[in-house]
Amino acid sequence: MILVRHAEALLWAGRYLERAENTSRCLNYAANSITHLRAEEARVESELLVRTLGLTEELQAAGPLESRPQLIAFLLSDSDNPGSVVSSVSAVRENLRSVRDRIPIELWEEANGLYLRFPFLGHANNAPKELHEVLLMVRRACLAVSGVLNEGMRRDEGHALMVVGRMLERSIFTVNLLEASCSDPRGALEASRMLRLTSSTQAYHRQYGNAPDFEIVVRYLLHAADLPRSVRSCLSHAEESLNSLASGASALDRPRRRTALVRSRLEFGDIADGLSSAPVQTLSELALELAALADDVQAGFVPPLALSEIHSQYLRPGTADGAAS
Amino acid sequence: MADVNGNGLSGSPSMLLDGYDASRVYDEVFDADGAVRGAYSRIVERFSELDAAELQRLGELVADEFRRQGITFTVYSEDEGTERIWPMDLFPRLIAAAEWEELARGLAQRVTALNCFLSDLYSGEAAVLADGLVPRWLAVSSRGFERNAVGITVPHGAHCNIAGIDVVRGASGRYQVLEDNLRNPSGISYVAENRAAMAKVCSWLFEDHTVQPTEQYGQMLRSTLESMAPGGADHARLVVLTPGIFNSAYFEHAFLARSMGVELVEGRDLVVEDHTVYSRTIEGLVKVDVIYRRIDDDFLDPVAFRPDSSLGVPGLLGALRAGTVTVCNALGNGVADDKAVYPYVPDLIRYYLGAEPIIDNVTTYTMWDEEQRAEALGRLHELVAKPVGESGGYGVLIGPHASEQELQAARAAITAEPREWIVQELVQLSTLPALAEDRLEPRHLDLRPFVLTAERTEVFPGGLTRVAMRRGSLIVNSSQGGGSKDTWVLAPESP
Which CATH entry fits the domain spanning B98-353: 3.40.630.30, 3.40.50.11290, 3.30.750.200, 1.20.59.10? Predict the structure, then answer.
């Protein structure tokens, strides 16, 4: 039986691990593609990337991106940006550190090893070659962590929670990407770029064997059962992992139901219809659904109502309201 | 100066040991004539095959290993307050089997007597005070004496389940106890990690010896703690209670939980209902039977102790009193490892066990005794003064190293508050070679073996050897620049 605090830490370790990988993939894309664009096009595309990563508010706090180096610094090494690679890697490490007694030593070592390269990350200049090396290092380290997670970790609650975290974060990223692409009238993030940003180009070509078609790509990234980054695939894995968690955890019933509902709507239901008639609205609603699902999962571990029921009968001195200490 | 290159070592003379001076104090490796002591002959030969660059390279490998694994500790006084890599010197400390057996018997004897003292004080009739062996005023004025613990019985009368006893060797070569640590002795994780690192980086060193393993500590500790469960060992649920990831010993707390296969909890993970302690899991509340706490008494329960503590568990004292949970080590052990009580331990051994102490104390002067105080203050320049309320080497005045101004200040402080000080004869701690830039030089060291007690008392083989890395320094604490060494207890059949 896993502690509530450990459950939360592992869930977030999974989310931040995926976030580090997503951000580094976006950076890689930005480094290779935006360089070839005119200044205005690059600015638009940078904004779309930031929106895809769910960092619009953080960018507003940081100030406008006026150059490519600024975009790279914001996404790579800005420690005030919770979605930057540095912040994500740091968060993975801190969360795993708080549960290091219950995860494989190798998992901790890989996460700690990545964190220890921070000075390298922080001082990386923006020359394409060095940036490429930094991103390659981050990506390989993320893959190493994933490898230990998959191959070295017992299939217990901790493993299930990290998988749930990763799948939630991944599905949110993919839907954000689709929404940003569909809602951009300039079509800056066209089909092939969506595939690149989800590492799905090769899979798409093997499946469809032709030049990417925007609508097909959108449906592919939403519905494909065999694509690791499709929303349906992510939700199936999340559902499976949530179901594997202890049956006594009744507070997880709500996120279990919601996951199954969204997954089945993708698999059998109305989302496909909505994409034909009102794609932006459909994707926006799906994004909200996923955000609500993430909230439900979080609340499932730290249920506010249940907490008030299990507070200590011994109050901390000075707490007059009877709240849990 | 001992000519350590004239000792008939096989192979080329070791540049590393050139000029090694073993004549000033008891050296663990070389006797006063520069001859290698028996147990170390093969180790000295092995090291004589290395040069400084190779030894430094191996040291860096160990440091990398520790860095990668996050084997760290935190020094709070540093501005940055960041984690430091655990320092380890590669030249191991060896303890021959017979020598260890004697030491272990002495440690077990001492901890048994201290447990009797605690049991007498908290759940007995305090006969030791009534009989005047330890002055009542001294015991009850101890900061470690916990009135709230009076009347709380613990299984097997074992108040101190995990003890770390600091022992040293002076000029005579005999072990002496320098300090008892009966509350939250730390360092066992570094014992295991030092060995693991040595086995990886210097596996060839082990080829000539049979060394007692260190990886069984978790199993030993788990058995000890399980047998402290109020309802018996079967299905007992243990947890390790940590202040959290920012605590200086967090690495150790995680190590303990992992090596025992139990949860590492913080105070906020636990809740007390109906005088029973539960942990908050995603399936609801689950009863806890034994808490191996790594936080101090004052922070354990904000209702009973410090109200500003956010580390503890409200209501824990009530659960303890109800007997539904055991907290290890027990509340109030600080009275028995109070430095002011230390001078009485040999008498406690005689009183409770009817036996002579196997390991002696360092000669100690009690400052509340006028006669002893007068003598000590007159010779303070050659003695060591220790404030009884400090730990980690802080506040210690080493007479021969102190200025006249410092000595005067210490005399004034002792005269003003004699209860707060003890004064001891200076023990010139024994030395062992440690790498200092490009050569091995003698460095002072101590040893902290760990003693586990429940139904019976067991001494874990070896312990944490701490070494002062600065030349001539007697302060071995890692928080003050000390390092560590792998400690090898040799099996009886080992050469």
Answer: 3.40.50.11290
User: Min CA distance, A54 vs chain B (Å)?
Assistant: 29
Residues A162-184: pLDDT tens digits? 999 999 999 999 999 999 888 87
Handedness of CA B307, B310, B311, B314 (dihedral sign): positive
The token pair at A312 is: 């200590």
Q: Which run of H or of E encompasses B240?
A: strand B238-241
What confidence tens digit (pLDDT) does each residue in B34-78 have?
899 988 999 999 998 888 899 999 999 999 889 888 887 766 654
In angstroms, the first-to-last Cα distance of chain B is: 28
* Phi, psi angle pair for B306, to nearest 5°: -70, 120
Locate the domains of chain B by residue range.
98-353, 363-425
Instruction: Flag residues of chain A having pLDDT under 50.
Output: 124-126, 304-313, 315-325
How large is the ipTM? 0.78
Which of B486, B494, B463 shows the shortest CA–CA distance to B104? Answer: B463
Measured between alpha carbons, how far is A6 from A139 in angstroms, rounded to an integer?
Answer: 26
Chains A & B: contacts with CB separation below 8 Å: 109
Single pTM value for the model: 0.86
**Residue among B84, B281, B325 with most chain A CBs within 10 A, to mutate:** B281
Tell me the C-alpha distance between B429 and B482, whole Å. Answer: 14
